[in-house]
Amino acid sequence: MTIIGIDPHKSSLTAVALTADGSVTATRRFAVTKGTGPAVVAWASQFNQALFAVEGAKGLGRGISQYLISQGHEVIDVPSTLSMKARVLHTGGGRKTDAADARAVGWAAQHHQGLQRVAVEDHAELLGLLTHQRDALKGERTRALNRLHDLLRDLIPGGVPRGLNLTKAKAALRTVRPATAIARCRRDLARDLIGEVARLEKLMDDYEQKIAEELQATGTSLMKLPGISTILAGKILGEVGDVRQFHSAGHFASYTGAAPLDTSSGDNQRQRLNPGGNRQLNSVLHVMAVCQISHAGLGREYYLKKIQEGKTPREARRALKRRLSNVIYRTMLKDLTAGKPVLS
Prior knowledge:
- The chain is an alpha/beta fold.
- It has 3 domains: 2-117, Nucleotidyltransferase, domain 5 (2-Layer Sandwich), CATH 3.30.420.40; 123-218; 223-337, no CATH class.
- The chain is 57% helix and 11% strand.
- The strands form 2 sheets. A 6-stranded mixed sheet has the order 3-2-1-4-5-6.
- Helix 5 (123-155) runs antiparallel to helix 7 (181-218), helix 7 packs across helix 8 (230-240) and helix 10 crosses helix 12.
- The two termini are 32 Å apart.
- The model has no long low-confidence stretch (mean pLDDT 90).
């Protein structure tokens, strides 16, 4: 079998064909245009049983990966961090070119058995797009409120309290009586920002409604879990996709960053916090844990049990996040086995 490693960029991609022993048989650079996909397939047709390995198949490599799948080819997603380590290992230094990166992608695909196969974009991708867009709008609203807070601080003696929202901003602006041209300018700017915040909140509500409609179509039962809202459920499904790609609850917890890392050495048996993993899912687990700790239930009981065992509140919360990761994993698997059309 020939492994074709692909290093994608915005305006070009480089493909390298590797034999079973890792030797390079051909290298080709393609400009990214409408005809890139057919050109790559035509070039790869000279090799028997070609298997494509693309760096960042959910990022810059998304376009070529989805095209190759549509043509019936198998594609492996190689994380950029893994290909970088493979390149350094094989070259013995920091030498870096597009061809070297493509070779490293192919080498990683040859020797790493846990890499994911790229699938056709489905309902998970749609939920991911919607939740990411809503998060972006939320960030814009926060920045607009911060600018509005600065203006009101200069317009109103003593400013306004923290936790500014649209209703409080409108009420505060109604009390302003500008006496100078500069103060009137600040008032007008504040009025425009209030309109911007109102527009952003309307868009956020619209996207939340779209996410709710898509979730209803999936049949997921994630929202029955305490602490999981419509937005968080959409984020979980959008980030995870097909949960069957994780062979165990531990594998899933490692992906979410909820599983601690083993840092034992010699007789010292230690574990430390995992700073990696999917930060979006880790954030979901954090919100879910904080919510369950604040309300009576199994989550709070588990948290208090860890406190009684001598753990600090932070350590107990991390232990709860690890347990909740298992709950989410089992819930998603149960939805599949129950015949619900999740991500179909």
